[in-house]
From TrEMBL:
Alphabetized SUPFAM superfamilies for the sequence: Cupredoxins (SSF49503), Cytochrome c oxidase subunit II-like, transmembrane region (SSF81464)
Organism: Tsuneonella dongtanensis
Protein name (Swiss-Prot/TrEMBL): Cytochrome c oxidase subunit 2
NCBIfam families according to UniProt: CoxB
Reported cofactor(s): Cu cation
Taxonomic lineage: Bacteria, Pseudomonadati, Pseudomonadota, Alphaproteobacteria, Sphingomonadales
Length: 363
């Protein structure tokens, strides 16, 4: 017991001296650990920022095609300038806009013919009314005629409208049929979603990315040389000279996707997916607007369609982080081998017929 106390009295000062000597080193080590962690975090931050910027640039619809952040081949895309604007309203315009789609080129002559038919019918009815009012006025006919039937007139005014309607129905049905024919299987699909109050364009065949399109402020549109209340920050980009499958829906209320110079209009209804085909014959910029009253800012959700040659369209898709071409087909899974009996009890008796499952492959 005495030895134990003596030993304790000897070791206690030594232990205290050891603690005093090592305490600054421990404190320095503790202070250095956060510093090392902060330095590592500081070094990792630029790398993470660069990675994040690359990831954002890969899907950002405003990505600069000339930077290295976009996919290979994306630098071939350059947005069309205002000199490429083709489909837009003109001051004092009286007729429909010039058409740049096969459907529009088919519809315009029919539209003009209908205008002339309506004008002729209206002029005929107006002339007939004026003739009747003057010819059969009271002063000229003190004793009115009491004729109640005229077989020839009744046949004419029944058959003539029928023939006119039949003549209108034949090209009308043909035009409707052309508009709603199914797009080819290899057509590019664009899903148009109407929001209050902007548009979203999704490309399910090219990776499923979505481009959000809002109207540009008046001063920004003027700076770019584009028409006010029609210019947008991100256009709907499609290939020119080939059929496109347009699908429309809405996220809130009913909208209508309409581009007059392409003779295209299709309602966007929440919970429904409407579909129609479209072809734009020439590269260019074509403007439209929502054509269904959808709320306070209905007049401020314009549409801008940019049609490009196929190589430039594919470059634009890559600039959005999308894919071009069909994905490689997955290899068919290998057929698992037939399981063999594990015990002698499961083996078939000598001379017995093999099970049907084993005989099938041999057959």
């Amino acid at each position: 017991m005495i030895l134990g106390k003596s030993t304790a009295r000897i070791l206690a000062p030594l232990w205290a001296a050891l603690l005093v000597a090592l305490a600054p080193q421990a404190a320095l080590a503790q202070d250095a650990a956060p510093a090392v962690e902060r330095a590592a975090a500081t070094e990792a931050a630029p790398a993470a920022a660069e990675t994040g910027a690359a990831a954002i640039g890969a899907v950002d619809d405003k990505a600069d095609a000339s930077t290295t952040d976009v996919a290979e081949g994306a630098s071939a895309y350059k947005p069309l300038g205002p000199e490429w604007i083709k489909g837009q309203p003109t001051p004092g315009g009286l007729d429909v806009q010039k058409q740049y789609s096969p459907i529009g080129e088919q519809a315009v002559p029919f539209h003009n013919a209908l205008v002339w038919i309506m004008a002729i019918i209206s002029a005929f009815v107006l002339g007939l009314m004026l003739y009747t009012m003057i010819r059969f006025r009271r002063s000229a006919n003190p004793v009115p005629s009491r004729t109640t039937h005229n077989t020839l007139i009744e046949v004419v005014w029944t058959l003539l409208p029928v023939l006119i309607l039949v003549g209108i129905a034949i090209p009308s049905i043909s035009l409707l049929s052309a508009q709603y024919q199914s797009a080819p299987k290899d057509a590019v699909t664009v899903k148009v979603t109407g929001y209050q109050w902007y548009w979203g364009y999704t490309y399910p065949d090219n990776g499923g990315f979505e481009v959000i399109s809002n109207m540009l402020p008046e001063d920004e549109a003027e700076r770019r040389g584009e028409p006010g209340q029609l210019a947008v920050d991100n256009r709907m980009v499609v290939p020119a000279g080939e059929w496109i499958r347009i699908q429309t829906t809405a996220a809130d209320v009913i909208h209508a996707f309409a581009v007059p110079s392409l003779w295209f209009k299709l309602d966007a209804v929440p919970g429904r997916l409407n579909e129609k085909r479209l072809m734009i014959k020439e590269p260019g910029i074509y403007y439209g607007q929502c054509s269904e009253l959808c709320g306070a800012k209905h007049g401020y959700m314009p549409i801008a369609v940019e049609a490009l040659p196929r190589p430039q369209f594919e470059a634009w898709v890559r600039a959005q982080g999308g894919t071009v071409g069909k994905p490689e087909e997955a290899a068919a899974p290998a057929v698992a081998p037939l399981q063999q009996p594990e015990t002698a009890a499961q083996q078939p008796a000598e001379g017995a017929e093999a099970p049907a499952t084993e005989a099938a492959p041999a057959a």
